[in-house]
Amino acid sequence: MSADPTSTETPAARPSNWNLPNALTTLRILLVPVYGWALLHDGGDSVGWRTLAWFIFFVAMATDKLDGDLARSRNLVTDFGKIADPIADKAITGMAFIGLSIIMDTWWMWAISIIVLLREWSVTLLRLSVLKTVVIAAAASGKWKTAIQGLALGFLTLPLLEVDGWLDVPGEITYGLAIVLLLVAFVLTLYSGYEFFRDVWRQRDTLRRGAPA
């Protein structure tokens, strides 16, 4: 059916890229090298710099939640946000995984980091490549993965085992909790990745129709 030429309705204006959610996303990207520098300062042995790194990581993860809520509630979802937001998320967590692997220098942390980063970036790139054809909604497992991953990386960023005195025992307990959370996040990372690729496979016919001839 063709549009009514006498209609006075006008299509809704697309939101500008210059908005608060996108500014928060950009801030998160800019914080990635700052976080990495603070985390690795003095080889990761500085209590003060590690604490600063934790604060930067906390701010970055908080903007991840805030920019999405603002964009949806104020109808400020833009193409820039759709592309930059997942890149910003993976950049800050990727920096955390790599930086902590360097500091901890254990084979199992490197193994977890490499597997997680391969999963995260493959899902992100595939999600962006099919964005114009089909939208793959984030599953509940993916949201839990993000939350637990953030908690684990945040705890591990803190100088839990570098503080002497009365913080020794609480630090060791919290460090142990961080490792448990990291393992839970690792399992959820693999499972949510499986769910994503499964959903993409189920929509393969839609993807074929949307592909250029």
Task: Explain the layout of strands and helices.
Elements: H1 20-40, H2 47-73, H3 79-104, H4 107-129, H5 140-157, H6 168-202, H7 204-210
Helix pairs in contact: 1-2, 1-3, 2-3, 2-5, 3-4, 3-5, 4-6, 5-6
Describe what you observe in this structure.
Helix content is 74%, strand content 0%. Helix 1 packs parallel to helix 3 and helix 3 (79-104) crosses helix 5. The chain has one domain (20-205): CDP-alcohol phosphotransferase transmembrane (TM) domain (Four Helix Bundle (Hemerythrin (Met), subunit A)). By secondary structure, it is mainly α. It has seven helices and no strands.
Q: Could you list some keywords that capture this structure?
A:
213 residues, mainly alpha, Four Helix Bundle (Hemerythrin (Met), subunit A), 7 helices
At the fourth CATH level, what is the homologous superfamily?
A: CDP-alcohol phosphotransferase transmembrane (TM) domain
Number of helices: 7
Question: Radius of gyration over alpha carbons?
Answer: 20 Å
Distance, first to last CA: 26 Å
CATH class group: Mainly Alpha
Strand content: under 5%
Range of helix content: over 70%
The tally of strands reads 0
Please give the CATH architecture. Answer: Up-down Bundle
Task: Characterize this entry briefly.
The protein is an all-alpha fold.
